């Protein structure tokens, strides 16, 4: 027997929360539809974040007085900068607006509401970023214009 839950209530004027709820509902529908989520890129980003934090902590707390620790500080700062740049590259060019990677890594689900904040479009891409399917534009409530 299927349990019915109370409906989730949000403020429709909060476009960020509406997008978040739609993304979560989309992910839930996709995973319940038989696809298995692939978190390898998310795990890679977490690993890079942790590694950059380690370099930052070494630079801050390593017990060498300042003048003698200049080479160590230079290495730690350079490593932090490089790792942060790699992380930003992954977020900008690999993830883009992907809300879910699925196994066996041949399909990714994007949402597109960048140009129009009051609409939601779900796009499915294959591994080569060729569009497989695009949903109709869904309105996210009323759009108000102030005089």
Topology of helices and strands:
Layout (H helix, E strand, L loop, with lengths): L14 H18 L7 H22 L8 H26 L2 E5 L4 E6 L6 E8 L4 E4 L3 E2 L8
Antiparallel strand pairs: 1-2, 2-3, 3-4, 3-5
The major β-sheet equals: 5 strands, antiparallel
Q: Count of helices? A: 3
The helix/strand class is alpha+beta
Rg over CA atoms, rounded to whole Å, is 21 Å
Q: How many strand units?
A: 5
State the order of secondary-structure elements, H for helix, E for strand: HHHEEEEE
Low-confidence blocks of residues: 139-147
What's the domain count? 1
What fraction, in percent, of the residue positions are helical?
A: 40-55%
- General form: elongated
Beta content: 15-25%
Oligomer: single chain
* First-last Cα distance: 52 Å
Average the pLDDT over all residues and give the rounded result. Answer: 76
Brief rundown of the structure:
With 147 residues, this protein is of the alpha+beta class. The chain has one domain (15-139). The chain has helices at residues 15-32, 40-61, 70-95; strands at residues 98-102, 107-112, 119-126, 131-134, 138-139.
What does this structure look like?
Helices cover 45% and strands 17% of the residues. The chain has 147 residues and is of the alpha+beta class. The C terminus is likely disordered. Strands 1, 2, 3, 4 and 5 form a 5-stranded antiparallel β-sheet that branches. Helix 2 runs antiparallel to helix 3. Strand 3 and strand 4 form a beta hairpin. It has one domain. It is elongated.
């Amino acid at each position: 027997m299927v349990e019915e839950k109370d409906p989730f209530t949000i403020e429709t004027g909060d476009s960020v929360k509406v997008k978040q709820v739609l993304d979560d509902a989309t992910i839930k529908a996709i995973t319940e539809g038989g696809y298995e989520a692939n978190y390898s890129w998310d795990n890679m980003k977490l690993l890079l974040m942790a590694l950059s934090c380690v370099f930052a902590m070494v630079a801050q707390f390593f017990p060498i007085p300042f003048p003698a620790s200049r080479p160590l500080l230079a290495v730690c700062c350079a490593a932090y900068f490089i790792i942060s740049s790699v992380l930003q590259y992954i977020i900008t060019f690999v993830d883009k607006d992907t809300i879910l990677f699925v196994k066996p890594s041949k399909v990714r689900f994007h949402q597109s509401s960048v140009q129009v904040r009051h609409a939601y479009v779900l796009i499915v891409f294959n591994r080569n970023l060729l569009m497989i399917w695009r949903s109709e534009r869904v309105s996210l409530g009323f759009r108000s214009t102030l005089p």
